[in-house]
Design brief:
Elements lengths: L2 H9 L20 H32 L3 H47 L1 H14 L4 H25 L9 H25 L5 H24 L3 H31 L1
């Protein structure tokens, strides 16, 4: 999706188009930015939960045949990883939100200090988007009369002043999705027979990350096959490396 199309969709969520546009307003219930924020946090959390926990338990299984050791390591890794993922998302999105708030505060100050220049700037932005000078001026005047800060935020800053990114939402989405993803390899490797433990986990994790990659790509409008293949290659590489390390360390410790 192009940036200009995304901007048009974001503006149509709460208000109709320019004057003279009789088309009905599309009932967008969630902005593109909010959707992508949740999608990114959820997909990254689930994928990281599956791959990192799978790598951990497969590595421990390569070092020891003890189901208890594998379970303890898996549970510890699951919760430490979920907390780490949530904290990282909170810090990252908080920084983004602070930046957005600072930009809005600067725009609010400029509107208070020189509203005429800001009106001309807004009209110029609409002229740059293809409106003729008279129509651009009327659109800028009407939007400024309704909510000047919001008009500038959407067109100039590409922000929705009423819907800034929420660090707590991103952190919670990452935490929960990591736990859900981590349960896949953890349950399989602890409930499978000893001889089938690693093979069953690798097969299930491969299928899970492939499905996750395809679904996330479909939701984001990208090619599902490429995303699925990328997730599968990464997951297999992580498990292969940790299993080899676990086997080598376990063999050296038992020698």
């Amino acid at each position: 999706m192009s940036r200009r199309k995304a901007e048009r969709e974001g503006r149509s969520r709460r208000r109709p188009g320019p004057p003279g546009d009789s088309r009905p307003t599309e009932p967008h219930h969630e902005s593109l930015g909010s959707r992508l924020n949740w999608l990114r946090a959820g997909v990254l959390g689930a994928n990281d939960g599956i791959v990192s926990t799978a790598g951990l338990v497969v590595g421990v299984a390569g070092a020891t045949a003890s189901a208890t050791a594998v379970l303890v390591a898996g549970v510890a890794g699951m919760f430490s990883g979920a907390l780490s993922m949530a904290l990282g998302e909170y810090v990252s999105v908080s920084t983004q939100r602070d930046t957005e708030r600072a930009a809005l505060a600067r725009e609010r100050r400029e509107l208070e200090e020189d509203p005429g220049a800001e009106l001309e700037e807004l009209a110029g932005l609409y002229r740059d988007r293809g409106l003729d000078a008279d129509l651009a001026r009327r659109v800028a005047e009407q939007l400024t009369a309704r909510d000047a800060l919001r008009a500038h935020a959407e067109v100039e800053l590409r922000l929705d002043s009423d819907e800034l990114t929420d660090p707590w939402q991103a952190a919670l989405a990452s935490f929960l999705s990591f736990l859900v993803g981590a349960l896949v390899p953890l349950l399989l490797i602890t409930l499978s027979p000893a001889d089938w433990r690693v093979g069953t986990t690798v097969a299930a994790v491969t299928a899970a990350v492939a499905l996750l990659g395809a679904v996330s790509a479909r939701l984001g409008g990208a090619a599902p096959l490429r995303a699925a293949l990328r997730c599968v290659v990464g997951g297999l590489l992580a498990m292969a490396v940790t299993f080899a390390i676990g086997t080598a360390v376990g063999g050296a410790a038992g020698a």
